[in-house]
Amino acid sequence: MRRYDDTMNFNKNWNEYKFGFGDPRLQFWMGNEALYALTNQGNYSMLVDMLSCNGRYYYVKWNLFRIKNETMKYAVDAITVESYNTTTSIVGRIRGRAFGTADNINVYSPKSGKTCAEHHGGGWWFQTCTEFHLTGNYPNCANISSNNDENQRKMKCMAISGFNCNIGCLLQAATMKLRRNN
């Protein structure tokens, strides 16, 4: 996955996330079927690079990342946090979480009564909708709202600034990179 501006819409349905979308040279989602096939042929690590709206770079590295098949809703099967430069390691909490989109429900937002994907955009391994979400609605970093609820519906990593989702936790760019472990 690569995302760096609002020209690619990540509010897609289950099949689009299943098979992938976008251009791998630009912005894209590789597809959950490809991600499943790749991560189940050996041990893979994943590095997530993030650029926050305040211009700081953050990362999390999982030395093991694997998802289950479509029948299991591409749930994160194995994940082990190796290192990170955020304030907490909540980015590891997606273990066991099923992937969800607006048309394939997995978790509801307690505030809105909608699915996490309906309320926050995109598709993801939602836990509580708002902690770590790289496919959420793209933020306008030049015009950040002081409304914490509005900010929580955007592309973010709350491990950066905690549950007060201010400019620091909103992301203007993110990339997920896989590598086979030797």
UniProtKB/TrEMBL annotation:
PROSITE patterns in alphabetical order: FIBRINOGEN_C_2
Transmembrane segments: none
Gene3D superfamilies cross-referenced by the UniProt entry: Gamma Fibrinogen, chain A, domain 1
Signal peptide bounds: none
GO cellular component terms given for this protein: extracellular space
Residue ranges constituting the Fibrinogen C-terminal domain according to the UniProt record: 1-138
Protein name: Fibrinogen-like protein A
Species of provenance: Lingula anatina
